[in-house]
Design brief:
Blueprint lengths: L4 H23 L2 H12 L2 H9 L2 H22 L2 H17 L3 H13 L6 H28 L2 H15 L6 H15 L4 H16 L8 H17 L10 H21 L2 H33 L6 H8 L12 H9 L2
Length: 331
């Protein structure tokens, strides 16, 4: 329990809370944060990678912490938050290469800030980039000292071997779309929500909200990085851009609830209820069926009564699963 289940629960809970609080701080809307966190909590891929304690959940935790610190920097103009954001995202890259997309998106956002002068933008990028490079530099130095193949396998070979560039630019996008469809084949409402929110986002002008521009940059860069570099059907690569999609869905729902018509709010409520039902049916439906049909096989009382009169100490007992459990329960 302490080695497997508990760490996954704690890490997943941290990711869900950080996504909620990041979206809330960035948008000022509790509704947006709650819906984004709900989409992550009910995401079957996120549940599975958290349950397995994979490196993805560590990377997502540090990335969301970095995004929260970046938001705090924008709200307070304190460089300490910018430096902390760089450090957290640098650590995230050590956990998974998808963190590079978030580093790149942050640099683009800092470089394109229109409210500050160009020299200050450069200072911001340095304040973010230097702490981000510290963990990466430590890892690269360690890898080069203890064997170049460690560094090459972690960074270079992975990027080249998994790259979708072999199928050409026109083949990358359909391949990534198919990977997304396969990932959500049993929960298609997730993919539909992500698609609708992306269309809605790019139809909005940056003047609509302070979140529109950053969300566009994060969405485009994370999906492009997934498409071009992380072209792999196995694993949980889709979760990284889908985090930004979840934030976009939360912000879209919050915006439409506040500014939409009563009919729009009704449709949103119906869509959310259907999405929750779809997710819970996929996650808990098979478990309930397994319990329903296996439960009669786990009635050990009669077997225990039959076995209890036998002298089985020191003997080998041959039998099926129920007999084995009955013997175990008898001590």
């Amino acid at each position: 329990l302490l080695q497997t289940r508990l760490p996954g629960v704690l890490l997943a809970g941290g990711c869900i809370w950080l996504l909620y609080y990041w979206v809330y701080r960035a948008s000022g809307s509790l509704t947006a944060g709650s819906i984004a966190a709900l989409l992550l909590a009910l995401n079957p891929g996120f549940m599975l990678t958290s349950r397995e304690g994979r490196m993805d959940v560590f990377c997502i935790l540090f990335l969301l912490g970095g995004l929260l610190c970046l938001t705090e920097f924008c709200l307070t103009a304190s460089n300490k938050y910018l430096a902390l954001a760089g450090l957290l995202m640098g650590i995230a890259v050590l956990m998974h290469l998808n963190g590079i997309a978030f580093l790149a998106a942050t640099v683009v956002l800092l470089f394109t800030m229109k409210v500050v002068s160009f020299p200050r933008r450069v200072r911001y990028i340095f304040s973010f980039g230097f702490p981000a490079m510290l963990p990466l530099a430590a890892w690269i130095i360690f890898a080069l000292i203890h064997g170049r193949e460690v560094f090459e396998n972690q960074f270079l070979k992975h990027a080249f071997n998994r790259s979708a560039a072999r199928i050409g630019l026109l083949g990358m996008i359909p391949a990534e779309l198919m990977r997304q469809v396969q990932s959500y084949s049993r929960t298609p409402l997730f993919l539909l929500c992500f698609l609708v929110s992306a269309i809605w986002l790019f139809r909005q002008s940056n003047a609509t909200s302070k979140m529109i521009g950053p969300l566009k940059v994060l969405l485009v860069i994370t999906y492009l990085f997934n498409t071009i570099v992380m072209g792999k059907s196995s694993g949980f690569y889709q979760l990284y851009p889908n985090i930004i999609s979840a934030a976009t869905v939360g912000f879209m729902c919050s915006f439409l609830i506040k500014n939409g018509t009563q009919r729009t709010r009704l449709y949103l409520n119906i869509a959310l209820v259907l999405l929750v039902f779809n997710s819970l049916a996929v996650i808990y439906g098979p478990r309930w069926l397994a319990w329903r049909f296996q439960q009669p096989m786990r009635q050990y009382q009669n077997l225990e009564h039959d076995i209890s009169g036998l002298n089985v100490a020191g003997k080998t007992i041959l039998g099926s699963g129920p007999e084995w459990y009955a013997v175990e329960r008898l001590g």
